[in-house]
């Protein structure tokens, strides 16, 4: 380590004093014979000893005084230099002392101010880096950044998960080496070549599913207009694509379901106006068909309005203590006419009075929809079994029929709007295709679940699980 300024100054001062005092001694020694040419040799020796002693003492005193003077000015500079070196090495907590007059100077104040400013800048930079890292990692989109040479220098976890990549393995690789889909590579090529923003939608086909990604590529331009690279953002739009498909299917289904009864009503009305009303029997038959289609249209509109109301933000349930026996009795009364028409009977298994917190009107609606479904898809003289079981904090309701059954492949889509296993039979039975969608929504609004099991030719069982107490 290099010696400090103070040590160097003391050494230089000592050498200078030594030279000066030695020269002074030599000069004084030359003058001695002029004043005492015949002086005794012993006295001369004493004189030389005295002269040397005086010069040595003068040297030491002068050196001490000079050292003390230099200590006030040079030693603080040495310490400030050490502090400056520590600051230059990144130790922004280092500070010079301010507890002495020799340290209370503009240089010490300036060094401390520089250290304080650098510390603040370091903290701000650390905070900004943490914020950027948090933002990059927490954003819902995949992020990939390339330098001017086309190599990866930034990637977040979402992109790793989307494409099955590892951050450690792809850092420093070019975009053509990391295994991106060809469409994405082409987009990156276009951004590099044109230095313009490019967007594209990419379909990613997996083993069990298909995902859709919106890819946005843009050049990264520095503060002074210099080219730094490009950034690629990939946002998963699979849900949006599926929702758009659901919306299109819904519009198509509603249009179809509305058009069918309207077409029938219009056709039979035109036939009556063209002369068929002259025949009372034909007119009665046609009016009956018109009434049936009008009822079906009315039921469809009611179900659409009901489902729309349930899915709105303002939809609430009127909770109260509900006896499940009352719910089932009310539902059976509502479908009693349909049961009589098909000569069907019901079996209920309810052990005592089982009560829950729920909306009795909505629960009756659920039971009516499920019972109507069971009646419509069963032949005459069949039996519907309804059972309620107490399962600690929850209850289980089962509605089993002896109907035609449902294929296992059809079960996952059974609760979709307008989905019908047998469209012709559903339409003949007067169903709207919304009943089970309403059931699912109302049960989930009660914080419950609904499942279905079915076997072709044997029948179908719907299972509902509901909590006894609701969390408000």
Topology-level CATH name of the largest domain: Heat Shock Protein 90
Provide the domain count: 4
Largest sheet: 5 strands, antiparallel
Mean pLDDT: 79
Helix/strand structural class = alpha+beta
Short account of what is shown:
The protein has 13 helices and 12 strands. With 472 residues, the protein is an alpha+beta fold. It has a 5-stranded antiparallel β-sheet with strand order 2-1-5-4-3, with helices on both faces. It has a 5-stranded mixed β-sheet with strand order 7-9-10-12-11, covered by helices on one side.
Overview of the structural elements:
The protein is of the alpha+beta class and 472 residues long. The protein folds into four domains: 1-138, no CATH class; 139-236, 2-Layer Sandwich (Beta-Lactamase); 241-311, Helix Hairpins (Orthogonal Bundle); 320-467, Histidine kinase-like ATPase, C-terminal domain (Heat Shock Protein 90), CATH 3.30.565.10. Helices cover 54% and strands 18% of the residues. It has helices at residues 5-35, 41-88, 106-138, 157-163, 167-170, 182-194, 238-273, 280-311, 324-334, 336-341, 360-376, 423-429, 435-445, and strands at residues 142-146, 152-155, 198-205, 210-221, 227-236, 320-323, 345-349, 355-358, 383-391, 394-400, 449-455, 459-467. The protein has a five-stranded antiparallel sheet, sandwiched between helices. A five-stranded mixed sheet has the order 7-9-10-12-11, with helices on one face. A hairpin with a 5-residue loop joins strand 1 (142-146) and strand 2. The longest helix is centred in the N-terminal third of the chain and has 48 residues, at 41-88. It starts with a helix and ends in a 5-residue tail after the last strand.
